[in-house]
Amino acid sequence: MIFKYKAIDTSNNQKEGTIEAVSLEVAIASLQKRGLVLSNISPVEQKSFLERNVSFLEHISSKDIVILSRQMATLFEAQVSALRVFELLSSQAEKNSIRQKLSEIAGDLQAGSTISDALAKHPDMFSPFYVNMIKSGEESGKLDQTLLYLADYLDRTHEVTSKVKSALVYPAFIVFTFIAVMVLMLTVVIPKISAILVDSGQDIPVYTKVVLGISGFFVSYGMFILIILVVGGFFLWRYIKTEAGRYSFDSLKITFPAIQVLYRKLYLSRIADNMNVMLLSGIPIVRGLDLTSKVVDNKVFENLINQVVEDVKTGSSISDAMMKSGEIPSIFIAMIKIGEETGQLGNILKTLALFYRREVMNAIDTLVGLIEPVMIVLLGFGVAFLLASVLIPIYNLSGAM
């Protein structure tokens, strides 16, 4: 293997270079024999041209982080050194992007960095919440336990989030199919049949005229409509990326009648679970709330929690601060208040997280159960109406003949 290193020689000069060795330990020993003091060393991966140019396309998913966290927890629980943990994980990683980042972390640890500081250099892979959890584990000397809490938490979050996404994929597919069938009927099928009706010279019913008019509009201006939709979709996407757009979109999630219950329970579950894990790891409640606001993934609730943080800093209790918002259910606030008064806030938060996680699952099942038949009926009704609008006049024409 080839290793890239940075070091200081006996004359206090900075040196950089590469060295070939069978392992990292052999490379370090060889450089130290030369009188060099290493500041960083990491393996240089030998990749094909294709691998080098497509690695940036690899997406590091939440599932990858869950699996990686579980592996880290297992290795630390087995008393494996931090440097060796990341070397092992780097050598076993399937994705080049993950392998490269873990290799860089191992290099930083070799240079004397803490685990949390090394992870913080890769915010696209390890969130501030993740880094602070690791930092808490380092400071308390319970890194293996913290990693187990973290792995379990990420596993639960991934499970709930994946189910929400999966539940919304099917309705989206049905809506897309409905629109595609309607457009196909109006632009391909109806125009051919309408020619027969026009040539017959018979009186055409009003509802048929409406359908023929819509069909003619799509045929004449379909390309312009497509361009407008594409351009509008692009600007909508750009708007959602802005602060105001993200707030509006997140506000829509918790106010739109069909999905508001699902998303509200999802965010409440995330808040309770996240705060519970923070308390278990020994992170102060104010810091825990601050980090919770960053991982709740909704601007409305993020602003709400930030306000709670400010109120708590001024001496208010968490329950009293949450009561001011109007967005959090009274039962949630009442349970938090009981936890504060009894000193069992961690257990209360665990109970709330479990309750709302079950509620999310039930809401998903209810939503899918309602949407499936409604969408199928609408699709069938739409197609039937279009066909009836043109077939009934044709039937009348054949009967008159």
Walk me through this protein's architecture.
- The protein has a 3-stranded antiparallel beta sheet.
- The protein has 3 domains: 1-44; 48-126, Receptor-associated Protein, CATH 1.20.81; 157-401, Type II secretion system (T2SS), domain F (Receptor-associated Protein, Up-down Bundle), CATH 1.20.81.
- Mean pLDDT is 81; it is low at 48-56.
- It has 16 helices and 3 strands.
- With 401 residues, the chain is mostly helical.
Attribute tags:
three-stranded antiparallel beta sheet, Receptor-associated Protein, 401 residues, mainly alpha, 3 strands, 76% helix, 3 domains, single chain, extended, 16 helices
For the report, how would you describe the main beta sheet? 3 strands, antiparallel
CATH class call of the largest domain:
Mainly Alpha
User: How many individual domains?
Assistant: 3
CATH fold description of the largest domain: Receptor-associated Protein
Strand content: 5-15%
Percent helix range: over 70%
Counting DSSP E segments of at least 2 residues, the number of strands comes to: 3
What's the structural blueprint in terms of helices and strands?
Elements: E1 2-8, E2 14-20, H1 24-33, E3 37-44, H2 49-54, H3 62-77, H4 82-92, H5 96-110, H6 115-120, H7 128-140, H8 143-200, H9 206-241, H10 243-253, H11 260-280, H12 285-295, H13 299-313, H14 318-323, H15 330-342, H16 345-400
Antiparallel strand pairs: 1-2, 1-3
Helix pairs in contact: 3-4, 3-8, 4-5, 7-8, 8-9, 8-11, 8-16, 9-10, 11-12, 11-16, 12-13, 15-16
